[in-house]
Amino acid sequence: MTLGILAALHDEVDGLIAAMRHEDARATCRTIGMRDYYQGTLHGQPVVLVLARVGKVAAAATAVTLIREFGVDEIVFTGLAGGVAPGVEVGDIVVADRTVQHDMDASPLFPRYEVPLLGQTEFPADPALTAALRQAVAGFLREDLASEVPAGVLARFGAPRLHVGMIASGDQFVSSSAAVAALRRDLPALQAVEMEGAALAQICHEYGVPYALMRTVSDRADDTAHVDFPAFLREVASHYSSAVLRRFLAARR
After folding, report:
1. List 12, 92, 126, 194, catalytic entry
2. What is the count of structural domains for the chain?
3. Is residue 114 annotated as a catalytic residue, yes or no?
4. What is the average per-residue pLDDT within 105-110?
5. Of 8, 108, 171, 217, whose Cβ has the fewest other Cβ atoms within 10 Å?
6. Long-range Cβ pairs for the range 221-224 (8 Å, 24+)
7. Range of the domain at 26
8. 12 classed as catalytic
9. CATH of the domain at 96
10. pLDDT tens digits for 27-75?
11. Per-residue model confidence as pLDDT tens digits over 192-214
């Protein structure tokens, strides 16, 4: 079983690539469609790592390449998101149980949020893969957090909690209370918003490939919480991704 691992930003994947190169001297890199795909072993498991870049088109194109060119059996996406639901705060981790494209609107020909010709609005995450990812997050928060992130950093950004639920994707940065209010009204189960996951989910649905999605909350999408984004990405989110995926992969041995 080969796992595809995607992220949207360099800091989210660079540490994983470095770990692979350290562990596996035979790891290779192929450049396809302006993306570098790193294939090898990470924490004892065969994986393909890639920087997908930002947006739904980027995520979909990368997912197709992982499936068709590398034959991955499962895909995990890790990255950042904006918190939407009450109680989903900066620093928290959200694991998706399903995804939706919040900017998909082909009405009146099709219901809002429904992907035309698929007859589907939500794309469920794979239950087994998601359960394993949840366990990895819970173990990280319980046992690894203090050693992975300095106390001063946690004091600045807050101690994280785990949430499970809907994540929505769209090619827009949601940053107003009005936009969040509309999303909460239409999608009451929504936990967080980002720009890639639901596109990945659609591709996985069409190809029959299981997927799971983990996001670290870097801001409140209603703009009520402000954070130093580069510092958060560098000092917090990148460590979360690496540590959680280390646990996730170790459990698969």
Report:
1. 12
2. 1
3. no
4. 93
5. 108
6. 221/82, 221/83, 221/84, 221/174, 221/175, 221/179, 221/180, 221/183, 221/192, 221/193, 222/84, 222/175, 222/176, 222/177, 222/179, 222/180, 222/181, 223/175, 223/176, 223/177, 224/177
7. 3-250
8. yes
9. 3.40.50.1580
10. 999 999 999 999 999 999 999 999 999 999 999 999 999 999 999 999 9
11. 999 999 999 999 999 999 999 99
